[in-house]
Amino acid sequence: MFNVETIRKDFPILSRKVNGKPLVYFDNAATSQTPQQVIDVIVDYYSNYNANIHRGVHSLSQEATDKYEQARQKIQNHFNAKHAHEIIFTSGTTHGINLVANGFSSLLKKDDEIIVSALEHHSNIVPWQMLCERSGATLKVIPMNQEGELVMTEYDKLLSKNTKLVFVNHISNALGTINPIEYIIEKAHQVGAAVLIDGAQSCPHIKPDVQALDVDFYVASAHKMCGPTGEGMLYGKESWLKKLPPYQGGGEMIAEVTFEKTTYADLPHKFEAGTPNICGGIAFGAAIDYMNAIDFDAIAKYEHELLEYATKQLSQIDGLKFYGTSKHKTSVISFNLEGIHPYDVGTILDKLGIAVRTGHHCAQPIMDYYKIPGTVRASFAFYNTKEEIDIFVSGVKKAKMMLS
Ligand SMILES: Cc1ncc(COP(=O)(O)O)c(C=O)c1O
């Protein structure tokens, strides 16, 4: 049974005060909070079995290696990857995207085309622009509409035999739109293009099945789903990961090194040069366990209730304009108050103990489309409550009164 009051007890940070007021944390799309169960795993690692992995014969190293590889299997099961070696530990979504973009440098040539969407976070734009500079390929963009949805008829027109790669997010961080990735993947495959899905914002809310999606690459960050920062994963189909060259050279990723020639290790180690964030990987596994124990269907249902409740309350405020009004959205609300800069609203909310994000949310093209400098973004997690939304809505009203 989903019980938010019981869940909240797992998160020590939720009982602290900010500026003398109880914290209302609505910046979950930037980073989620960490439950005690995950904090305990981190403390246990450093207290009891901190050691380098895959190299030592000693017991501590073996213990850490076992826990790290068990975490890889947890991630494999969670995303339903066929093989554990299709899961590459990364430092986060950004790292995963750069790894793939770098690998494609040697596979693309002039006249090849790659497709991005208008709804992307900068980390799913810039690495591909850099790839275009290196390879001579051209970047095409799926446009968006006023509701903050991708225009699929335009996507269809962009696809051709020259298309080699398509990369879109599963859910937009700035607007919360859930993109039709099943359609995007199917259409891309029809022209022989590979697809990378940026799952940074979907993983906290839904449980993606990479085999059912038939996606080629899927990336995520642990810190968006109750895990630690600096940790994430790249899923890649075995055939693609075998084809891509290593991203970084160093220890761990080699089979044999001589000054004449180096041969590379098998998957997944080929992409995991150097000492990884061992504790981070293990804690990522613990975060996945934690969220699965709560249940993703229950999480999605409850967060949808929060979204509807907050949308209804906020829509009663005169001069408040929402950005991102798709029917298919997750628990993110982006808005502005007429004539007021989003930063000023965020500053007043902070004084009231309410944490929201303001600005362009690393998605400047979306702000350019709407011709605004940014928005106020409130993003809810399964540990938030309707009472917190009431506090937030009265905070927005107060900000409007003070700044008008
Ligand atoms: C959609 C999306 N993609 C990529 C990222 C980058 O994630 P990270 O900073 O964890 O690498 C974010 C972070 O906010 C995001 O929301």
CATH architecture of the largest domain: 3-Layer(aba) Sandwich
Relative helix content:
25-40%
The outline comes out as globular
CATH class of the largest domain: Alpha Beta
Which blocks of ≥5 consecutive residues have pLDDT under 50? none
**Beta-strand residue percentage:** 15-25%
Mean pLDDT score: 97
CATH fold type of the largest domain:
Aspartate Aminotransferase, domain 2
The total domain count is 2
Strand order of the largest sheet: 4-10-9-8-7-5-6
Could you tell me the number of beta strands? 17
- The named CATH superfamily of the largest domain: Type I PLP-dependent aspartate aminotransferase-like (Major domain)
Structural class: alpha/beta
What oligomeric assembly is this protein in? Answer: single chain
Largest sheet: 7 strands, mixed
What's the end-to-end separation, in Å? 44 Å
Question: What is the strand and helix layout of this fold?
Answer:
Blueprint: H1 4-8, E1 17-18, E2 21-22, E3 24-25, H2 36-49, H3 59-79, E4 87-90, H4 93-103, E5 113-117, H5 126-135, E6 138-142, H6 152-158, E7 163-169, H7 181-190, E8 194-198, H8 210-213, E9 217-221, E10 232-236, H9 238-243, E11 254-257, E12 262-264, H10 278-294, H11 296-314, E13 320-323, E14 332-337, H12 342-351, E15 354-355, E16 357-359, H13 364-370, E17 375-379, H14 386-403
Parallel strand pairs: 3-15, 5-6, 5-7, 7-8, 8-9
Antiparallel strand pairs: 1-2, 4-10, 9-10, 11-12, 13-14, 14-17, 16-17
Helix pairs in contact: 2-10, 3-10, 4-5, 11-14, 12-14
Note down, in words, how this protein is organized.
This is Cysteine desulfurase. With about 400 residues, this protein is of the alpha/beta class. The chain has 2 domains: about 5-30 and about 295-404, Aspartate Aminotransferase, domain 1; about 40-290, Aspartate Aminotransferase, domain 2, CATH 3.40.640.10. The protein has helices spanning about 5-10, 35-50, 60-80, 95-105, 125-135, 150-160, 180-190, 210-215, 240-245, 280-295, 295-315, 340-350, 365-370, 385-404, and strands at about 15-20, 20, 25, 85-90, 115, 140, 165-170, 195-200, 215-220, 230-235, 255, 260-265, 320-325, 330-335, 355, 355-360, 375-380. The chain has a 7-stranded mixed sheet with strand order 4-10-9-8-7-5-6, sandwiched between helices. The protein has a 4-stranded antiparallel sheet with strand order 13-14-17-16, covered by helices on one side. Strands 1-2 form a two-stranded antiparallel ribbon. It starts with a helix and ends with a helix. About 45% of the residues are buried. Bound molecules: pyridoxal-5'-phosphate (PLP). Pyridoxal-5'-phosphate binds next to helix 4.
